[in-house]
Amino acid sequence: MKRSERVSAIVKILSDSPNQSYSLGTFCQMFGAAKSSISEDLQAARNLLEKMELGYIETTSGAGGGVRFIPSISDKVFLELQMDLCEKLKEPARQLAGGFLYTSDIMFNARLMKKVAHAFARKFQDTGADYVVTIETKGIAVATMVSDLLNIPLVVIRRESKISEGSTVSINYFSGSSDRVQKMSIAKRAVEPGSRALIIDDFMRAGGSVKGIADILTEFDVEIVGTGLIIVTTEPERKTIPEYSALLYLAGIDPEKKELKVFPNIQFF
Amino acid sequence: MKRSERVSAIVKILSDSPNQSYSLGTFCQMFGAAKSSISEDLQAARNLLEKMELGYIETTSGAGGGVRFIPSISDKVFLELQMDLCEKLKEPARQLAGGFLYTSDIMFNARLMKKVAHAFARKFQDTGADYVVTIETKGIAVATMVSDLLNIPLVVIRRESKISEGSTVSINYFSGSSDRVQKMSIAKRAVEPGSRALIIDDFMRAGGSVKGIADILTEFDVEIVGTGLIIVTTEPERKTIPEYSALLYLAGIDPEKKELKVFPNIQFF
Questions:
Q1: pLDDT at residue number A61
Q2: Cβ–Cβ of B17/A108 closer than 8 Å?
Q3: Domain annotation for chain A: domains and CATH numbers
Q4: CB-nearest partner of A8 from B11, B110, B189
Q5: Predicted-assembly ipTM surpassing the 0.95 threshold
């Protein structure tokens, strides 16, 4: 392979497997090239990705060292993403009876959720999270993408305990959104005591279900190192969890214009 | 940007958004280069991706024409993936009481599901599907990845009708796995009458839930153009749906060795 081909190949391989470490030797063998050549290729790949504001190639030296791609998103693209999401959410046809909002098509828009996941990955890259944790159902697509970008497992908390989950731990919690007590259940084998979790979900009102996730993880002595949400309502102001990062804030519906009041969190990062 | 940088950038941009069409003009503007140069860059990018067996760059001419990346997976990597999945599934600790198998960590392993999704994308690329459809919960990660690779929306059928789904259509179906009648529900606005759906799910025994998905989609006059499953049991031999593509076949547990009998479908493609 020629130099230009090697650089493209390295960009492709590293960015297809974000946060996965490759030794220099892997590339030397792959391309039949000397370490010095591969180092120059990596420098070219690094420069390009930084110029495009798509992320970083990080090199760690020593035994077990290697190179890995750390995905990111530029401030500009992030703001465009926030505005795009606000626009979509404001579409009048999304407003359902009872003040509910139809968001399933957005939350299961894989391409869009991949972008959102880049924002969460940038935000939570250095938290040392061992898992991404979400609760079924609408946060699963974005949580899957975050899990891929950070290269850590995804744990999905279920609403009911399933036989196929093996032995489980369940809790009941009060959900303000549905105004009733709900159940959540996690497979015992899904998490390791003493590990760290990053919670990702699509929507939060008072925080009942996120608090439930935190509570159930506490049973396993798991530390919450971050909580990322796509939409958080401004009311109630007081949430049941102390810290979280919202992409967007939702302030209800303007009673005159019937327009949704939703705006970007400009302090996300 | 230099030629080598442009080629890497094009590889990155196209493969980050598979099946999304870009006009030549977009790249000309982005890099401040002439059409003839960009055409050469694209040829270099095309050669590289084909050499790496990662997919194809397709050019369509005429108004609305452009270039797009069609992701694929080589026969060799696909076979390795199948063997890897079989190995993982054979781990003795997965065997639960009642003949159930713990697979949640596999089905929510985003990196692994991205690979599986490449196999489904290769298989179903030319079906003309308008949506990927799955039913909650364990197929959502792989379905999300397929939806991203084919650049079509994902529709997730729910077990219960939720207020936030708006007006829904529900059916009851018999699930052999749980040996009881279950319900599934789809938002009316989620699918367009007369469109085409690709069903993706993690597991099929007799086919009750996949048949349910097909039935509920038929209510909307939606045609099923493909059905992809990760694991299909060999028993019962007669399934309730006529056609499907399984990555792996599961033939139960060897009563002597206590080992799971699972093997790759060598006729997948």
A1: 83
A2: no
A3: 3-71 (1.10.10.10), 75-264 (3.40.50.2020)
A4: B11
A5: yes
